[in-house]
Write a structure and sequence with these properties.
Helix content: 40-55%
Strand order of the largest sheet: 3-2-1-4-5-8-9
Radius of gyration: 28 Å
CATH architecture of the largest domain: 3-Layer(aba) Sandwich
Largest sheet: 7 strands, parallel
Bound molecules: 2-acetamido-2-deoxy-beta-D-glucopyranose
InterPro entries: UDP-glycosyltransferase, UDP_glucos_trans
Number of helices: 23
CATH class of the largest domain: Alpha Beta
GO cellular component, one term: membrane
EC number: 2.4.1.17
Number of strands: 15
CATH topology of the largest domain: Rossmann fold
GO molecular function: glucuronosyltransferase activity
Subcellular location: Membrane
Shape: globular
Structural class: alpha/beta
Strand content: 5-15%
């Protein structure tokens, strides 16, 4: 310890010398997005930089939530009535419990997201006095999420010399293609693709279709107008490629392996704080719950799609209804998550459930409901999890090393579930199977009693905890490098400027085919000519 101390002091001194002014742009749009950006802001603050978090509101309910612990300089911006009404449309996803996201919805959702960023652009450009105040802080670096390209004219207005992009998701083909990254749909599942990297012909077709649709119906408007010069267009995808680095929420030890460009810095898992999770103090009551049976199983479906909105026949929590009405018994006799739970007398099931209906809780004898799972997810007495496969949960269970049942509902959750399943520590079940207690029971049985899942999950956790460079160090060192040196054109791959034919060498292939054809033809005619010559000679003889 005594040996380390002088180095620590030195380290603090060094970071003090190179302190930068950094602006983190975090529109309040999704809880997980903001949590991720709040975490990144705090990491920069902790390292001694002056960080300002700029949070224009899109969805009202997040307005008063504090996403940072250490970063105190938070600048709010309220929406105009139009952006507010757009934000109100976003809330409410419960229909996805039963419905699939069809690829035909891509154009529509792209158009919708364009209206979000377009309107946010209008809100920003009509609040110049606020922006002028920000400008006075003379930022060295700007950090934002690539889906919010409306940040690009803001960077110009604030005259910030460099920016870095972070993505709270694992992979998004449009912005990565803009950076010059190879995004082959033959083996890289797109964000909303439901397949792993090993795809059948049909799955490759779907994956390619998704990528093409997302390319042509981009989430971002083609260009924005500069705030102070309405004749100047700022082209989103072109300008995005000026990013010094792109931080993706993908971890090479967890995600599907693929080729990436040098400016892509994968920092997946950066928001998992295992130390903090393990230090969480349990209340007496919860302690007793965890001691009740030899095994404890945690069910949590995240904060976007709520368990309370789960279709009745999937969960059937209310046993009173079950007993009172024989008709309902007949209808639902083979269904329900709850029935599957009943088969395990040595397991306590804990279910994150957002309803305050105490009557319902009373009828539940073997199960406990709670609203937040964080307080004990790292407890060694927890045997296994069931989650919806949100990236936050997937990263967390990977670090904790618990076998998991993944039941993806929507968005990138299908991809996340496949990504985790590759490591053999989890079982995936379809949301449509939740109504079938036999399938659910079998999945429970696997992750609770089959040791191989626990062994595989533990191995993955060991890999993540011992990865050669910690995601936090990767992020901090690269962000500081960008703040110091600004734009990094040396990292811009030339492939970005190549056309399709050139990139895939199709022009070369065409020439090669022409050449070979020509060669074959000339050989053929030469042979014919020689043959004739030979024949005419033998005739004259
Ligand atoms: C960071 O903020 C502190 C306190 O407001 C200030 O003294 C310091 O000069 C700032 N650092 C930079 C690089 O502007
Ligand atoms: C958030 O806080 C502000 C000011 O404290 C208050 O006016 C507003 O009603 C709050 N908004 C929500 C959605 O709670
Ligand atoms: C998972 O299991 C399969 C089949 O047994 C094996 O081929 C594969 O290497 C395993 N994956 C990992 C990450 O261990």
């Amino acid at each position: 310890m005594n040996l380390i101390l002088p180095y620590l002091v030195l380290l603090i001194l060094i970071t003090d010398i190179n302190s930068y002014n950094i602006l983190v742009f975090c529109p309040l749009f999704g809880h997980s997005h903001s949590t991720y950006f709040g975490k990144l802001a705090d990491i920069l603050t902790e390292a001694g930089h002056n960080v300002t978090l700029f949070t224009p509101t899109i969805i009202d309910e997040f307005r008063n939530h504090s996403y940072t612990k250490l970063t105190k300089d938070v600048v709010h911006l309220d929406p105009n009535p139009k952006l507010k009404s757009i934000g109100d449309l976003i809330a409410g996803n419960s229909r996805y419990w039963k419905q699939e996201f069809s690829i035909l919805e891509i154009p529509q959702s792209a158009r919708f997201f364009q209206s979000v960023t377009g309107e946010l652009h209008n809100v920003l450009s009509s609040n110049l006095p606020l922006l002028d105040k920000l400008k006075k802080k003379k930022f060295d670096l700007f950090l934002f999420e690539s889906i919010f390209t409306c940040a690009l004219p803001l960077i110009d207005y604030l005259e910030i010399p460099a920016f870095i992009v972070a993505q709270s998701i694992t992979f998004e083909s449009s912005s990565m293609r803009a950076m010059g990254e190879p995004v082959m749909p033959s083996y890289i599942p797109d964000l909303i693709t439901q397949s792993s990297d090993k795809m059948t012909l049909y799955e490759r077709f779907l994956n390619t279709a998704i990528q093409l649709l997302q390319h042509y119906f981009n989430y971002s408007p083609e260009y924005y107008l500069s705030y102070n010069n309405p004749n100047k267009r700022i082209y989103s995808m072109e300008r995005l490629s000026d990013a010094s680095f792109v931080f993706t929420n993908s971890n090479p030890y967890l995600d599907f392996p693929r080729a990436i460009v040098s400016k892509n810095i994968p920092i997946g898992g950066i928001s998992v704080d295992t130390e903090n999770l393990k230090m969480g103090k349990l209340s007496e009551a919860w302690d007793q719950v965890l001691n009740r049976r030899p095994k404890t199983f945690l069910i949590a479906f995240g904060s976007v799609i709520l368990s309370k909105d789960m279709p009745f026949e999937y969960k059937l929590v209310d046993f009173q209804v079950f007993e009172l009405s024989k008709v309902i018994v007949l209808c639902f006799v083979r269904v329900s998550l709850a029935r599957a739970m009943e088969q395990f007398s040595d397991v306590t099931f804990i279910w994150k459930y957002e309803d305050d209906d105490t009557e319902r809780k009373k009828t539940e004898k073997a199960k406990y409901f709670f609203k937040r799972e964080r307080q004990f997810s790292a407890d060694p007495r927890l045997s296994a999890f069931m989650t919806h496969g949100g990236l936050g949960s997937v990263n967390e269970v990977s670090y904790l090393g618990k076998p998991t049942i993944m039941c993806p509902i929507m968005g990138d959750q299908m991809r996340n579930a496949k990504m985790l399943a590759r490591h053999n520590g989890s079982v995936e079940i379809s949301k449509h199977s939740l109504g079938d207690s036999k399938i659910v029971e079998e999945a429970f049985r696997k992750v609770i009693y089959d040791e191989s899942y626990t062994v595989a999950a533990k191995r993955l956790a060991e890999h993540l905890q011992n990865q050669p460079v910690k995601p936090k160090d990767l992020f901090l060192k690269h962000a500081e490098f960008a703040a110091r040196f600004g734009k990094l054109p040396s990292l811009d791959p030339y492939s970005r400027q190549m056309g399709f034919l050139e990139y895939f060498l199709l022009d070369l292939l065409f020439i090669a085919i022409c050449f070979i054809t020509l060669l074959c033809l000339s050989l053929y005619f030469l042979a014919k000519f020689v043959w004739r010559l030979f024949r005419s000679k033998s005739k004259t003889e």
